[in-house]
Amino acid sequence: MPSVIFRHFLIQSVIVCSAFFSAHTSAEEKSFSVAYNESWHPFSFRDENNQMSGILVDIIKEVFETKLNTPVEFYGYPWKRVQHNIEIGVHDALVTTATKQRLAYSIASKESVYTLEEKAFINRNSRHKDKLTSLTLENISDLKNYNVCDMIGNGWADSFYGRHNIDIKRFKDINLCFRNIAFERYDIAIHVSAAGLSLLKKEALTDKIEMLPVIFDEVPFPLLVSKKSEHLDILPKFDEAIRAFKAEGGIERIVDRYTR
Length: 260
Prior knowledge:
By secondary structure, this protein is of the alpha+beta class. It has 2 domains: 31-115 and 220-259, D-Maltodextrin-Binding Protein, domain 2, CATH 3.40.190; 116-218, D-Maltodextrin-Binding Protein, domain 2. The chain is 42% helix and 27% strand. It is built from 10 helices and 11 strands. The chain has helices at 2-29, 55-67, 79-87, 100-103, 129-132, 155-163, 174-182, 193-202, 235-247, 250-259; strands at 32-37, 39-40, 44-46, 52-53, 72-77, 93-95, 106-123, 149-151, 169-171, 188-192, 209-226. The longest helix has 28 residues, at 2-29. This is Transporter substrate-binding domain-containing protein. Residues 31-260 form the Solute-binding protein family 3/N-terminal domain. Belongs to the bacterial solute-binding protein 3 family. Pfam families: SBP_bac_3.
Protein backbone atom coordinates (compact mmCIF):
# COMPACT_ATOMS: atom_id res chain seq x y z
CA MET A 1 0.00 0.00 0.00
CA PRO A 2 2.76 2.54 0.86
CA SER A 3 4.43 1.83 -2.51
CA VAL A 4 1.18 2.56 -4.33
CA ILE A 5 0.81 5.86 -2.47
CA PHE A 6 4.42 6.74 -3.24
CA ARG A 7 3.98 6.00 -6.96
CA HIS A 8 0.82 8.13 -7.03
CA PHE A 9 2.66 10.98 -5.30
CA LEU A 10 5.57 10.68 -7.72
CA ILE A 11 3.29 10.78 -10.78
CA GLN A 12 1.45 13.84 -9.48
CA SER A 13 4.76 15.59 -8.77
CA VAL A 14 5.98 14.96 -12.31
CA ILE A 15 2.71 16.31 -13.76
CA VAL A 16 2.88 19.48 -11.66
CA CYS A 17 6.55 20.11 -12.51
CA SER A 18 5.92 19.51 -16.22
CA ALA A 19 3.04 21.96 -16.22
CA PHE A 20 5.15 24.57 -14.46
CA PHE A 21 8.09 24.33 -16.84
CA SER A 22 5.77 24.17 -19.85
CA ALA A 23 4.02 27.39 -18.79
CA HIS A 24 7.37 29.05 -18.08
CA THR A 25 8.72 28.09 -21.51
CA SER A 26 5.52 29.23 -23.25
CA ALA A 27 5.74 32.65 -21.60
CA GLU A 28 9.34 33.04 -22.76
CA GLU A 29 8.50 32.00 -26.34
CA LYS A 30 5.25 33.97 -26.60
CA SER A 31 5.11 36.12 -29.72
CA PHE A 32 5.13 39.90 -29.49
CA SER A 33 1.69 41.08 -30.66
CA VAL A 34 1.03 44.45 -32.26
CA ALA A 35 -2.42 45.95 -32.91
CA TYR A 36 -3.15 48.31 -35.81
CA ASN A 37 -5.90 50.36 -37.36
CA GLU A 38 -7.30 47.93 -39.94
CA SER A 39 -8.30 50.58 -42.48
CA TRP A 40 -5.56 53.24 -42.71
CA HIS A 41 -4.00 52.79 -46.13
CA PRO A 42 -1.03 52.74 -46.80
CA PHE A 43 0.11 52.52 -43.18
CA SER A 44 -1.98 49.62 -41.86
CA PHE A 45 -4.82 47.81 -43.59
CA ARG A 46 -6.18 44.38 -44.47
CA ASP A 47 -4.90 43.05 -47.80
CA GLU A 48 -6.73 40.79 -50.25
CA ASN A 49 -5.97 37.80 -48.00
CA ASN A 50 -7.38 39.59 -44.93
CA GLN A 51 -3.86 39.85 -43.49
CA MET A 52 -2.52 43.05 -41.96
CA SER A 53 -0.25 44.93 -44.33
CA GLY A 54 1.14 48.43 -44.79
CA ILE A 55 4.14 50.62 -44.05
CA LEU A 56 3.90 50.44 -40.24
CA VAL A 57 3.24 46.69 -40.31
CA ASP A 58 6.15 45.95 -42.63
CA ILE A 59 8.61 48.03 -40.60
CA ILE A 60 7.79 46.23 -37.36
CA LYS A 61 7.79 42.84 -39.10
CA GLU A 62 11.26 43.31 -40.59
CA VAL A 63 12.81 44.82 -37.46
CA PHE A 64 11.48 42.07 -35.17
CA GLU A 65 12.24 39.20 -37.53
CA THR A 66 15.59 40.28 -38.98
CA LYS A 67 17.09 42.41 -36.20
CA LEU A 68 15.58 41.07 -32.97
CA ASN A 69 14.93 37.45 -34.03
CA THR A 70 11.63 37.68 -32.16
CA PRO A 71 8.34 36.20 -33.44
CA VAL A 72 5.72 38.88 -33.98
CA GLU A 73 1.99 38.77 -34.72
CA PHE A 74 -0.28 41.47 -36.15
CA TYR A 75 -3.93 42.21 -35.41
CA GLY A 76 -6.30 44.72 -36.97
CA TYR A 77 -9.27 46.48 -35.39
CA PRO A 78 -11.18 49.76 -35.55
CA TRP A 79 -8.92 52.45 -34.08
CA LYS A 80 -10.68 52.86 -30.71
CA ARG A 81 -10.51 49.14 -30.06
CA VAL A 82 -6.79 49.08 -30.93
CA GLN A 83 -6.06 51.57 -28.17
CA HIS A 84 -8.35 49.82 -25.69
CA ASN A 85 -6.69 46.46 -26.32
CA ILE A 86 -3.28 47.90 -25.53
CA GLU A 87 -4.59 49.61 -22.42
CA ILE A 88 -6.00 46.38 -20.98
CA GLY A 89 -3.08 44.24 -22.14
CA VAL A 90 -4.75 42.12 -24.82
CA HIS A 91 -1.81 42.93 -27.13
CA ASP A 92 1.71 44.15 -26.45
CA ALA A 93 1.97 47.32 -28.51
CA LEU A 94 0.71 49.80 -31.08
CA VAL A 95 2.47 52.36 -33.26
CA THR A 96 1.20 55.93 -33.03
CA THR A 97 1.81 59.32 -31.43
CA ALA A 98 2.74 59.29 -27.76
CA THR A 99 -0.02 61.40 -26.24
CA LYS A 100 -0.35 61.96 -22.49
CA GLN A 101 -3.43 59.73 -22.42
CA ARG A 102 -1.64 56.85 -24.19
CA LEU A 103 1.44 57.17 -22.00
CA ALA A 104 -0.77 56.53 -18.98
CA TYR A 105 -0.99 52.87 -20.07
CA SER A 106 2.11 52.41 -22.25
CA ILE A 107 5.86 53.05 -22.47
CA ALA A 108 7.22 54.68 -25.65
CA SER A 109 10.36 53.70 -27.51
CA LYS A 110 12.96 56.45 -27.68
CA GLU A 111 13.32 55.95 -31.43
CA SER A 112 10.37 56.56 -33.73
CA VAL A 113 9.17 53.73 -35.93
CA TYR A 114 8.11 56.21 -38.60
CA THR A 115 7.57 59.95 -38.86
CA LEU A 116 4.58 61.33 -40.75
CA GLU A 117 5.49 64.33 -42.92
CA GLU A 118 2.87 66.85 -43.99
CA LYS A 119 3.64 68.16 -47.49
CA ALA A 120 1.84 70.14 -50.16
CA PHE A 121 0.28 68.62 -53.28
CA ILE A 122 -0.46 70.80 -56.31
CA ASN A 123 -1.38 70.46 -59.97
CA ARG A 124 1.76 69.99 -62.08
CA ASN A 125 0.54 72.67 -64.48
CA SER A 126 -0.94 75.04 -61.93
CA ARG A 127 -1.09 78.65 -63.01
CA HIS A 128 0.00 79.48 -59.45
CA LYS A 129 2.94 77.06 -59.45
CA ASP A 130 5.70 79.62 -58.89
CA LYS A 131 4.02 81.05 -55.81
CA LEU A 132 2.81 77.71 -54.43
CA THR A 133 6.28 76.17 -54.64
CA SER A 134 7.66 79.05 -52.57
CA LEU A 135 5.30 78.39 -49.64
CA THR A 136 6.89 77.69 -46.24
CA LEU A 137 5.71 77.90 -42.65
CA GLU A 138 7.02 81.48 -42.57
CA ASN A 139 4.65 82.64 -45.32
CA ILE A 140 1.87 80.09 -44.82
CA SER A 141 -0.67 82.90 -44.44
CA ASP A 142 -0.36 83.35 -48.23
CA LEU A 143 -2.52 80.23 -48.56
CA LYS A 144 -5.50 82.50 -47.94
CA ASN A 145 -5.12 83.60 -51.57
CA TYR A 146 -5.74 80.09 -52.93
CA ASN A 147 -8.40 77.40 -52.96
CA VAL A 148 -7.34 74.82 -50.37
CA CYS A 149 -9.02 71.46 -49.81
CA ASP A 150 -8.82 68.54 -47.41
CA MET A 151 -11.08 65.81 -46.02
CA ILE A 152 -13.76 65.85 -43.34
CA GLY A 153 -12.49 64.46 -40.05
CA ASN A 154 -8.81 65.31 -40.49
CA GLY A 155 -7.99 66.63 -37.03
CA TRP A 156 -4.50 67.74 -38.05
CA ALA A 157 -5.91 69.87 -40.87
CA ASP A 158 -8.54 71.43 -38.62
CA SER A 159 -5.85 72.41 -36.11
CA PHE A 160 -3.26 73.57 -38.66
CA TYR A 161 -5.55 75.70 -40.82
CA GLY A 162 -7.41 76.95 -37.78
CA ARG A 163 -4.18 78.27 -36.22
CA HIS A 164 -3.43 80.20 -39.38
CA ASN A 165 -7.02 81.37 -40.02
CA ILE A 166 -7.16 79.72 -43.43
CA ASP A 167 -10.53 78.68 -44.84
CA ILE A 168 -10.60 75.34 -46.62
CA LYS A 169 -13.06 73.14 -48.49
CA ARG A 170 -13.61 69.77 -46.77
CA PHE A 171 -14.60 66.82 -48.94
CA LYS A 172 -15.91 63.51 -47.62
CA ASP A 173 -12.58 61.88 -48.50
CA ILE A 174 -9.15 62.98 -49.69
CA ASN A 175 -9.67 61.32 -53.10
CA LEU A 176 -12.22 63.99 -54.04
CA CYS A 177 -9.87 66.73 -52.90
CA PHE A 178 -7.04 65.39 -55.05
CA ARG A 179 -9.28 64.92 -58.06
CA ASN A 180 -10.39 68.54 -57.80
CA ILE A 181 -6.73 69.59 -57.76
CA ALA A 182 -6.09 67.39 -60.81
CA PHE A 183 -8.83 69.27 -62.68
CA GLU A 184 -7.65 72.65 -61.29
CA ARG A 185 -10.85 73.33 -59.40
CA TYR A 186 -8.72 73.61 -56.25
CA ASP A 187 -5.11 74.69 -55.95
CA ILE A 188 -3.48 72.84 -53.08
CA ALA A 189 -3.78 70.30 -50.27
CA ILE A 190 -1.36 69.65 -47.44
CA HIS A 191 -1.41 65.97 -46.61
CA VAL A 192 0.70 63.14 -45.18
CA SER A 193 3.35 62.56 -47.85
CA ALA A 194 3.26 58.74 -48.06
CA ALA A 195 -0.55 58.66 -47.98
CA GLY A 196 -0.73 61.28 -50.73
CA LEU A 197 1.79 59.53 -52.97
CA SER A 198 0.06 56.19 -52.44
CA LEU A 199 -3.26 57.73 -53.43
CA LEU A 200 -1.78 59.30 -56.57
CA LYS A 201 -0.42 55.89 -57.56
CA LYS A 202 -3.73 54.14 -56.88
CA GLU A 203 -5.84 56.72 -58.72
CA ALA A 204 -3.36 57.14 -61.62
CA LEU A 205 -2.91 60.85 -60.90
CA THR A 206 0.88 61.03 -60.76
CA ASP A 207 0.98 62.72 -64.17
CA LYS A 208 -1.38 65.46 -62.97
CA ILE A 209 -0.37 66.12 -59.34
CA GLU A 210 3.04 66.55 -57.73
CA MET A 211 4.25 66.69 -54.14
CA LEU A 212 6.37 69.66 -53.07
CA PRO A 213 9.49 69.10 -50.90
CA VAL A 214 8.74 71.50 -48.04
CA ILE A 215 7.70 69.78 -44.79
CA PHE A 216 4.98 71.72 -42.96
CA ASP A 217 4.80 69.42 -39.97
CA GLU A 218 6.29 66.18 -38.63
CA VAL A 219 4.54 63.66 -36.38
CA PRO A 220 6.77 60.92 -34.92
CA PHE A 221 5.25 57.49 -34.29
CA PRO A 222 7.13 55.52 -31.61
CA LEU A 223 6.39 51.95 -30.54
CA LEU A 224 4.07 52.14 -27.52
CA VAL A 225 4.35 49.01 -25.37
CA SER A 226 1.56 48.27 -22.91
CA LYS A 227 2.52 48.54 -19.25
CA LYS A 228 0.80 45.16 -18.88
CA SER A 229 3.01 43.50 -21.49
CA GLU A 230 5.45 40.72 -20.59
CA HIS A 231 7.87 42.24 -23.11
CA LEU A 232 8.64 45.69 -21.68
CA ASP A 233 12.32 44.79 -21.55
CA ILE A 234 12.42 44.71 -25.35
CA LEU A 235 12.35 48.51 -25.71
CA PRO A 236 16.13 49.20 -25.41
CA LYS A 237 16.84 46.40 -27.91
CA PHE A 238 14.13 47.71 -30.21
CA ASP A 239 15.63 51.23 -30.16
CA GLU A 240 19.00 49.85 -31.20
CA ALA A 241 17.45 47.67 -33.90
CA ILE A 242 15.29 50.40 -35.46
CA ARG A 243 18.28 52.76 -35.54
CA ALA A 244 20.27 50.19 -37.51
CA PHE A 245 17.28 49.54 -39.79
CA LYS A 246 16.97 53.24 -40.59
CA ALA A 247 20.71 53.56 -41.25
CA GLU A 248 20.43 50.77 -43.83
CA GLY A 249 17.66 52.61 -45.69
CA GLY A 250 14.99 50.14 -44.55
CA ILE A 251 12.27 52.76 -44.02
CA GLU A 252 12.66 54.27 -47.49
CA ARG A 253 12.65 50.82 -49.10
CA ILE A 254 9.36 49.90 -47.43
CA VAL A 255 7.70 53.26 -48.16
CA ASP A 256 8.61 52.84 -51.83
CA ARG A 257 6.60 49.60 -51.96
CA TYR A 258 3.41 51.55 -51.42
CA THR A 259 4.15 54.87 -53.12
CA ARG A 260 6.11 54.15 -56.33
